[in-house]
């Protein structure tokens, strides 16, 4: 049963992240995903301090708010003339540091474990179960991730054309009356949600890998956005399975192995993609040269 | 309301428009009224605010003050009447999509919040691609198109918007001669249908040939009117300043040559 819960949790994390990752990669906002994943920490801690419970949905709310604040601050600094990459660096390290301070101040009374926030522990997921009317409903993380995935699929599915046009040509999107800023913050809110739901299992640092790596690999494998999203999810799921298998064999960190597996799949796509791969490009160039001689 | 009724037949009326980035004014007190069914060129040196004028008219950037009316109403009530062709470099041509899909984006504004593009949108998009001579490239990934072909896809998308007033930001920049000819024929066709097209343009040599009216812009409107009346040596000199002065003694052919080179 443990295997099942771990694989299900990992699969849900991978699916949530892989879908959103496509839009982050296409909008050249990979580093914003990184920033959000770090700066949600103070949101989690503040939500905990205010509610006094480790209720996941309260934390989800707190973290989502902090995620949006992060994006807002980064944009504010950028518009006032700070370099784009510098403003990302300033905002997320500062917010993350606030989170670290808050955790260390509260450490005496609280069971928020900094290691757990940073690296996650997917192997412990099935211990923290949700009980309803006395019956065991399964791990809390699975419920929260399932809920997050549903929200992501519903929002992206409903507004697919808006997200697509905002990613490709925001000027036209604004000109035809699509509220570009609203969809920007909606996407960022979803990224925050996905990050927080995932942080318990894969940790705040590795969730970036799940956001960006499968989507980047999928980008190399197709020329259609719809297909890119499905391939990205498939790669995310494959890395979950592969990574878990390897981690059992090596007795190593599960989340670490999953992201490593994603990286291996990315490298394979980079080398072997029929359209954009290194090998295909070399072969094409050679056949072109032979034809011209 | 009386003011609106008198301007209802005017495709675009701008009054006292000013725009600033940070503290620097980019446009100052621009006022103009466009006549329906004309091709209008906007020319001026780099940094004169040509693209800014279009973006401010479309509400893409905030204005300091002034008003913009499209057929007598604020632009946000008239979006269905407006078509927009941004600069080609403004988008990522490596985006995973094909030519047909890009043209279908022109229909998104009419689909509202929830409807998805379907068979009808596809048929319209194919028709628009055919009009710009790109029907055979419908399934081509957009990064595999040449610069001229990409520009034609953008024009097809604007056609799919089926607007009455078009804004085009440098549609002729960096395109081959065949595409340039295709674009100008398309503009003539739009004009024939009674549509109004405002084009940011760089090539002084073709202004007289292409446009009914022309606006010379350098932060402020230097001159605006029928091309024959306004596109004069002294007005150009006033607009381009010192950069144009050295051309003064030369003949028209040489002017043509040099202005062609200055494009970009």
UniProtKB/TrEMBL annotation, chain A:
Gene3D superfamilies listed in its UniProt record: ABC transporter involved in vitamin B12 uptake, BtuC
A Pfam family of this chain: ABC-3
TM ranges: 6-26, 31-50, 56-74, 86-105, 141-160, 172-196, 202-221, 228-246, 252-279
Compartment(s): Cell membrane
Keywords for this protein: Cell membrane, Membrane, Transmembrane, Transmembrane helix, Transport
Principal place of residence: membrane
Membrane-related topology note: Multi-pass membrane protein
InterPro entries for the chain: ABC_BtuC-like (IPR037294), ABC_TroCD (IPR001626)
UniProt superkingdom: Bacteria
Similarity annotation: Belongs to the ABC-3 integral membrane protein family.
Name this polypeptide is given: Metal ABC transporter permease
Organism the protein comes from: Paenibacillus oenotherae
From TrEMBL, chain B:
Single GO term (MF): ATP binding
ATP-binding keyword on record: yes
Keyword terms: ATP-binding, Nucleotide-binding, Transport
Pfam families in the cross-refs: ABC_tran
Start and end residues of each ABC transporter domain: 12-244
Keyword set includes Transport: yes
PANTHER family: IRON TRANSPORT SYSTEM ATP-BINDING PROTEIN HI_0361-RELATED (PTHR42734:SF5), METAL TRANSPORT SYSTEM ATP-BINDING PROTEIN TM_0124-RELATED (PTHR42734)
Family that this chain belongs to: Belongs to the ABC transporter superfamily.
Protein name: Metal ABC transporter ATP-binding protein
Organism: Paenibacillus oenotherae
């Amino acid at each position: 049963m443990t295997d099942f819960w771990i694989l299900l949790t990992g699969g849900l994390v991978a699916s949530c992240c892989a879908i959103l990752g496509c839009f982050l990669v296409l909008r050249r906002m990979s580093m914003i995903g990184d920033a959000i994943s770090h700066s949600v920490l103070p949101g989690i801690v503040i939500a905990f301090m205010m509610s006094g419970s480790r209720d996941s949905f309260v934390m989800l709310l707190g973290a989502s708010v902090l995620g949006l604040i992060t994006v807002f601050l980064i944009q504010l600094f950028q518009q006032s003339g700070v370099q784009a990459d510098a403003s990302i660096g300033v905002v997320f390290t500062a917010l993350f540091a606030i989170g670290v301070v808050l955790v260390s101040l509260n450490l005496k009374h609280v069971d928020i474990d900094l290691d757990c926030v940073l690296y996650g522990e997917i192997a412990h997921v099935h211990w923290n179960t949700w009980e309803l009317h006395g019956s065991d409903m399964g791990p809390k993380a699975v419920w929260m991730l399932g809920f997050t995935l549903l929200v992501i699929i519903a929002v992206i599915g409903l507004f697919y054309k808006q997200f697509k046009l905002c990613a490709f040509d925001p000027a036209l999107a604004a000109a035809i009356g699509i509220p570009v800023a609203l969809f920007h913050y909606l996407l960022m809110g979803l990224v925050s949600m996905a990050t927080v739901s995932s942080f318990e299992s894969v940790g705040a640092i590795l969730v970036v890998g799940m956001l960006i790596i499968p989507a980047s690999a999928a980008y190399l494998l197709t020329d259609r956005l719809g297909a890119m999203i499905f391939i990205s999810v498939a790669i995310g799921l494959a890395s979950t399975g592969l990574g878990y298998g390897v981690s059992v064999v090596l007795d190593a960190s599960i989340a670490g192995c999953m992201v490593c597996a994603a990286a291996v799949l990315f490298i394979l796509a980079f080398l072997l993609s029929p359209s954009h791969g290194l090998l295909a490009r070399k072969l094409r160039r050679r056949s072109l040269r032979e034809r011209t001689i | 309301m009386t003011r609106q009724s008198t301007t209802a037949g005017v495709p675009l009326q701008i009054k006292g428009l000013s725009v600033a980035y940070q503290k620097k004014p980019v446009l100052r007190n621009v006022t103009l009224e466009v006549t329906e069914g004309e091709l209008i060129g906007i020319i001026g040196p780099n940094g004169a605010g040509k693209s800014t004028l279009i973006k401010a008219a479309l509400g893409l950037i905030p204005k300091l003050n002034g008003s913009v009316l499209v057929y007598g109403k604020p632009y946000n009530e008239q979006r269905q009447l407006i078509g927009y062709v941004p600069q080609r470099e403004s988008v990522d041509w490596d985006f995973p999509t094909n030519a047909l899909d890009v043209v279908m984006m022109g229909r998104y504004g009419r689909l509202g919040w929830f409807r998805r593009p379907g068979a009808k949108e596809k048929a319209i998009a194919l028709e628009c691609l055919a009009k710009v001579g790109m029907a055979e490239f419908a399934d081509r990934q957009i990064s595999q198109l040449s610069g001229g072909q990409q520009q034609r896809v953008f024009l097809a998308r604007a056609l799919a918007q089926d607007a009455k007033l078009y804004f085009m930001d440098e549609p002729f920049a960096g395109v081959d001669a065949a595409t340039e000819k295709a674009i100008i024929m398309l503009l003539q066709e739009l004009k024939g249908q009674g549509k109004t097209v405002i084009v940011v343009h760089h090539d002084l040599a073709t202004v007289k040939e292409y446009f009914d009216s022309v606006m010379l812009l350098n932060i402020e409107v230097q001159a605006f009117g029928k091309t024959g009346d306004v596109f004069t040596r002294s007005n150009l000199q006033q607009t381009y300043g010192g950069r144009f002065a050295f051309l003064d003694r030369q003949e028209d052919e040489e002017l043509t040559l040099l202005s062609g080179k200055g494009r970009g």
